[in-house]
Amino acid sequence: MQFLDGLKLSKEIKEEIKQEVDLLIEQGKKTPHLAAILVGQNGASQTYVSSKIKDCEQVGFQSTLVELDETISQKELIAEIQKLNENDEIDGFIVQLPLPKHIDQEEVINAIDPKKDVDGFHPANFGKMALDMEAFIPATPFGILQLLSRYQIPTKGKHVVVIGRSRIVGKPMSILMGRKDYPGDCTVTLVHSSSENIENFTKQADIVITALGVPNFLKGEMIKDEVVIVDVGITRVEDATATKGYRIAGDVDFDSVRDKASWITPVPGGVGPMTRAMLLQNTLLAYKRNS
Ligand SMILES: Nc1nc(=O)c2c([nH]1)NC[C@@H]1CN(c3ccc(C(=O)N[C@@H](CCC(=O)O)C(=O)O)cc3)C=[N+]21
Q1: Buried (b) or exposed (e) across 213-248, using 16+ Cβ within 10 A?
Q2: DSSP code of 18?
C-alpha cells in the first residue's frame, strides 16, 4: 500500500503558484486577491478560514477576511456579497459553509458572481462543469483529480464508486469521473444514504471515493484487492491525548484496508491540504481571467 500524499503535493502546487506570483511582483503587477466571508464563530469554520488566509500569505496573494455576526440577516449578508462582487480589487471570494440556520444557503450562493466563485458552488459553474465547459471546479474534487493525475493512477474504463452525494464533493465528483478525459473516463456508481447493500458496489470498485463523514465506515471486507481509496472524510473526534483535544478521522477504517488497498489518501494529509491548494489555484485562474 502506498500513500497519495496530499500534503507533499499541495506544497509543490503552492510553490508553483508562488513562483507565478513572484513573476507578477517583478513585473510590478497587482497580485491575486482572495476574500472570505465568515458568518459566526463556529470552531471548525474559523480554523479552516484562517488556514486559507495563511495559505494566501504563503504564496503572496492578498487576502481579506470579512467576519460577520451570526445574527446577520439574509438581506445584509447578500449586500455584503454584492459589495465583493462589485469590488474590482477582489479576484475571487468564498462564503464559508455551513451558514447559520436562518440563512438560505441556496440564495446566498446564487448571489455570488460566477466569475468570482472560486469555490465553484454557483449553479452556473456547476452546470458548465457538468457540460465540460470552462468553469471553476470545486476545490475538493479538483484536488482529488490532481492527486490521481500526479500519481498517474489509471482511471480509463475503471469502476469508481463515489459514496455520498453532497453538492460540494459527491455529486461533482461523480460527474467529473465520468467525463471523457483523464483523470476520468470511468464507469461511475454513486451510492448515498438511501442506497441498499452499499458493499455490493464497493466490492466491485477499482476506485472508492468516500465523502460521508462517518469515521471507520469503509472496512476491509467491503473492498477488493488493489483498490485505490480516496478518503474525503474529516470528522473531528474527541481525543484527550491530542494537543487540541480532538483528532481528524477519515471515513476509512485504515487498519482493515491497509493490506488490500494499492493506494490510499491519508487523513490528515490527503484530500484536505489539496482542497486548500486548489482554492489558491482557482483564485489565480480568476485573476488571470479578469485581467
Ligand atoms: N465555502 C466553503 N468552501 C470550502 O472549501 C469549505 C467550506 N466552505 N466549509 C468547510 C469545508 C471543509 N474544508 C476543508 C478544507 C481543508 C481541510 C484541511 O486542510 N484538513 C487537514 C486537517 C486540518 C485540521 O487539522 O483541522 C487535513 O485533512 O490534513 C479540511 C477541510 C473546506 N470547506
Answers
A1: bebbbbeeebbeeebbbbbbbbbeeeeeeeeeeebb
A2: H
Neighbours of 43 (CB within 10 A): 9
Best residue among 14, 39, 48 to mutate for probing ligand 1, ranked by most atoms within 8 Å of CB: 48
Note if the pTM is more than 0.90: yes
DSSP code, position 103: S
User: Has 58 been annotated as catalytic?
Assistant: no
Is the shortest distance between the CB of 234 and ligand 1 below 6 Å? yes
158 in active site: no
- State in Å: Cα 48 to ligand 1 middle: 5
Any atom of ligand 1 within 6 Å of the Cβ of 105: no
| Complex ipTM value | 0.97
Confidence of residue 126 (pLDDT cuts 50, 70, 90): very high
